[in-house]
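Take a look at the protein record below with the fold in mind.
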Amino acid sequence: MAGSGGRGDWHAAARSVAAASKETNLTGAYDGTPRWKVCWPTGILWRGSHTIMSFSGLVLVCVVAFIAPLLLGLIPKVRLPAIVLEILAGIAIGPSGLGWVTMDEPIRVLSIIGLSFLLFLAGLELDVKLMRGRRLTLTLAGFAASLVLALAIGYPLAAAGMVQSTLLVAVILSGTALGVVAPVLKDAGQIETEFGQIIVAASSIAEFGTILLLSLLFSREEADPTTKLLLVGGFGVMTLIVVIAMTTAEKSTRLGNALLRLQETTAQIRVRGAFLLLIAFAALAGRLGLEAILGTFIAGALLAVLDPDYKTTHPKFHEKLEAIGFGVFVPVFFVASGIQFDLGALFADSSTLARVPIFLAALLVVRGAPAVLYRPLIGSARVPVAALLQATSLPFIVAATSIGVELKLVTATNASALMAAGLLSVVLFPMTALALLRRSPQPAVAAGRHS
């Protein structure tokens, strides 16, 4: 069928599906007549009079994913992360807006892969060389201070009836969007400075810490704390086995030569291996009753730790992974997050809308205040900049609130308010931080000086 394409291929695929499902007539024998029908060229798969799958919604999602960064590229003066526009456009085309798109199965599947890829790439940003010495001590202390502040804020919010689970809200408020902060630092030329490395280290610890806490405390699987700790221990053992296997395989000259030979061919063997690692760890985490996002983050971190010299032998490897993630799957996740956003719940009453600035202020206090601990390394002038960047959070809020809603620990109204606060943090905090950074110039300090 190579080169034929068109209607014939679709009907052949439909007949194969029908045969595989062993549809029968009244006598119990399959008569070869397809009960499946594909409407070409819309890509809508029918069974009888019922739609099985439609790609029309996914087309609109892809259109949004393409247009959002393009518009920002055409208007460079508008310094807005593309994910904000993607979420807003998702709201516009979703049930809360024009009602053009709903969360059907193709969008849902690609959205889940997008979230997994987002956390995988966040893990890939992890640099263990940053996690040592005084820098590690201060950033760990900063994250611990954030958790304490989050709990201190969460209790009065719960007492006022504004939140249901103090602990879940504390975990949500303690996160930082490494995937948003790192590009901002890179574009500002600060990623290699001591200031940039402190922020990346603090964001990495916050991202990993909150994902781990979410998996431990709020897994969809019912289990007591001891069982969950045992499950995490089992996950750690399996991770160690994978590390040993990968390290042993890395020493094989024959395998290394094969990887070098295949990495730039159509096999793209390293990319396939990375995708296998991502899916395997997501499946392993799910199998052990943990959140899949923990598995995908660990998979990315493992790849970063076990392949530190990728720039010398396969410099395009990370670029390829970022191209697949940020070019294909991750935008679908953010647009889908907008489609699921309950705008009606947010504007249902004034009390819900009033929670948005409260949650935004809570983000700034919980993650921003501990930045004062970094003053010995970055100077007083840059503490406010660090505070704003650390308080930037959205992807984790989206993931955590969806889990909270499913577990009935977060209401739809609170989920919408928290997401709105996260959106505002991504819009306002990095932009303000860059403005403060330009007004308070400081000689760049080489990273590693205080490590």
In short: The domain at 60-439 is CATH 1.20.1530.20 (Na+/H+ antiporter like fold). Confidence is low (pLDDT under 50) at residues 1-11, 13-43, 443-449.
